[in-house]
């Protein structure tokens, strides 16, 4: 499974909400049980964001003093993740 597909499948069944991308990557690696490399992970996040499959992961929640990193699927991302489950 390519990293984008792995990202979608992981986000479909799990919540990843961390202080930064490095911590998000560590959580992702823990969930999938392997290290795909931070560069490959960042590339997959960028590709999924570009394709409208995930929401912007870097956010400043209301009342927060610093940004937060969250992996969240868009409706198109949910549909893509569901399609992966049928393969």
Could you give a quick summary of the protein structure above?
Helix content is 54%, strand content 10%. The chain has 87 residues and is mainly α.
CATH superfamily: Winged helix-like DNA-binding domain superfamily/Winged helix DNA-binding domain
Structural class: mainly alpha
Biggest pleated sheet: 3 strands, antiparallel
Classify the fold: give the CATH topology: Arc Repressor Mutant, subunit A
Approximate shape: globular
Radius of gyration: 12 Å
Number of strands: 3
CATH class: Mainly Alpha
Q: Reading side by side through the largest sheet, how are the strands ordered?
A: 1-3-2
The H-and-E topology, N to C, reads as HEHHEEH
Average the pLDDT over all residues and give the rounded result. 92
The CATH architecture can be given as: Orthogonal Bundle
Task: Tell me the number of structural domains.
Answer: 1
Please give the count of helices: 4
Helicity level? 40-55%
State the end-to-end distance: 11 Å
Which stretches are low in confidence, meaning pLDDT under 50 for 5 or more residues running? none
Strand content: 5-15%
Task: Walk me through this protein's architecture.
The protein is mainly alpha-helical. Helix content is 54%, strand content 10%. Strand 2 (58-59) and strand 3 (68-71) form a beta hairpin. Helix 1 (3-13) crosses helix 3 and helix 1 packs across helix 4 (75-85). The longest helix has 13 residues, at 38-50.
């Amino acid at each position: 499974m390519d990293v984008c597909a792995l990202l979608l499948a992981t986000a479909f069944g799990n919540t990843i909400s961390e202080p930064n991308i490095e911590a998000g990557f560590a959580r992702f690696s823990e969930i999938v049980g392997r290290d795909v490399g931070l560069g490959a992970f960042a590339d997959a996040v960028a590709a999924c964001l570009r394709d409208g499959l995930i929401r912007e992961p870097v956010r400043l929640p209301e009342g927060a003093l610093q940004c937060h990193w969250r992996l969240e699927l868009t409706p198109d991302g949910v549909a893509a993740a569901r399609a992966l489950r049928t393969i």
